[in-house]
Amino acid sequence: MFSWTSLLFVLCSSLTPVLCCDWLTQYAHLSNTSLNHIRRMGGQLTYQQSPVPFPDKLYRRIWMDKVESQLVFIRDSLELISDLYQHDNLSSATWDAIETEHFLTVINRQIDGLNTCVSTNSSADSRLRKYYRRLETCTVYRTGGSTASWELIRKETKLHLERLHMLVASIRRRSAATQQQL
Length: 182
What we know:
The chain is mainly alpha-helical. Helix content is 74%, strand content 0%. Helix 2 (23-40) runs antiparallel to helix 7 and helix 4 (67-84) packs antiparallel against helix 5. It is globular. Residues 4-20 have low confidence and may be disordered.
């Protein structure tokens, strides 16, 4: 009996952020909206390789982590993505200004929603921050904010948004399976 009680306690404590987080029910819509805006704000995505490798290890590690850590990772990723677009030298980007504004509005709505689910005192993994800092440095700063560098940022953003979408889908599937078992 003790082991079942312990298991139930662990499941409830680890899934509490998911069960209490209304944002997750809206995520699919907001995620699709942000992906549509990132596609429509510019032309064809570049085929150019990023000078900074995609952080697959970070995503693989967070995939196995606790739900609350995953939610913090998603929120922090969205904040860091938003920060990329709050740059002084965005003038050379040839994007549709209205689509860009809508994209950032949706990203900020996602961040606000996640802040209702997790502690705002929880901070991003330093490796995640370093990745985004290197991405910005190796693209925007080294090229003086060229059009090509901004298109590379847009392409990398789309890849991250797609990966975050898959992570949330995984969280929701696990949550649904756990709710059915209870």
